[in-house]
């Protein structure tokens, strides 16, 4: 497939963090006239080329979060992120963030969420990209803070919050510690995905599936586990793979051993995502280029299959999914 064809091919993205995807345009709008050295600032948000562990990777967020503490800035960040995704051929994106990290300027979690939703809505009008918001609960945070995030998601579900997530240090805080919160989400029919099997083990993924996760963030740890792969296949539990990020955080040793091609051939529903567009210095187009560089040319059938898997697992109504499938068919067949 030609470069431009790959770039413009309609794509669906399920795993993209707002604070890790603060675009250059957004940064310029946010810090204008502030005297910041733009290049230094932008550079501080991108992971170093030689980074190979999660600590290196996570340190970049310390430089973007301070810029995201007001309604105005959150709105701009969400808007520009969708603008960047549009240039990638994205037709639907689920953006996620942890509202508890955006209270330093006096905002409540709900106020932060509302501001992001406004930005997403404006972007949908201007760029024609449909979007939904997922709220991340955080490992290591209190039951009370995470409970507030869940309540906020439930309260805002009519306005564009489509699901919840659990992010943060998986090795220190396995997802089962947060079982009660997920049981509550399940009771209220709030769908969720959980970061699992990124740096941790297969058991974490198994726990998440048992708790009722509809998708798994990363999940690369199950690559050699026949039983978990069978469960994901049978239950349609989609893995949100993020190749560039997985390499940078050391979740996988090399691209050559990245389990995308293998799992795809085995019929495991795998999707391709950016995780953090700015921190990883990536785009959805680049992710596909990276895969093509390692595993050979990516054709329309492969791209279409990933988009269908993503639509199947999107936190949308049946009718909304049908409409996306139609867009995909009309534009690619
Ligand atoms: Zn993530």
Task: Summarize the structure in words.
By secondary structure, this protein is of the alpha/beta class. It has one domain (3-332): TIM Barrel (Alpha-Beta Barrel). The chain is 48% helix and 14% strand. The protein has helices spanning 3-8, 24-31, 38-44, 54-59, 61-64, 71-86, 109-127, 143-155, 179-187, 202-211, 226-235, 243-248, 260-265, 284-295, 300-313, 318-332, and strands at 11-17, 90-97, 130-138, 161-167, 193-196, 215-218, 238-241, 270-272. A four-stranded parallel beta sheet has the order 1-2-3-4, sandwiched between helices. Strand 6, helix 11 (226-235) and strand 7 form a beta-alpha-beta unit. Helix 2 (24-31) runs antiparallel to helix 6 (71-86), helix 6 packs parallel to helix 7 (109-127) and helix 15 (300-313) runs antiparallel to helix 16 (318-332). The protein binds zinc ion (ZN).
Short description:
The protein is an alpha/beta fold. The protein has helices at residues 3-8, 24-31, 38-44, 54-59, 61-64, 71-86, 109-127, 143-155, 179-187, 202-211, 226-235, 243-248, 260-265, 284-295, 300-313, 318-332; strands at residues 11-17, 90-97, 130-138, 161-167, 193-196, 215-218, 238-241, 270-272. Strand 3 (130-138), helix 8 (143-155) and strand 4 form a beta-alpha-beta unit.
Which series of helices and strands comes N to C?
HEHHHHHEHEHEHEHEHEHHEHHH
At the fold tier of CATH, the topology name is TIM Barrel
> What is the molecular shape?
globular
* CATH superfamily membership: Metal-dependent hydrolases
Span between termini: 15 Å
Helix/sheet category: alpha/beta
Main sheet summary: 4 strands, parallel
What's the count of strands? 8
CATH classification, class level: Alpha Beta
Poorly predicted segments: none
List the bound ligands.
Answer: zinc ion
Strand content: 5-15%
Mean pLDDT: 95
The count of domains is 1
Specify the helix fraction band: 40-55%
What is the CATH architecture assignment? Alpha-Beta Barrel
The DSSP helix count reads: 16
Strand order of the largest sheet: 1-2-3-4
Radius of gyration: 18 Å
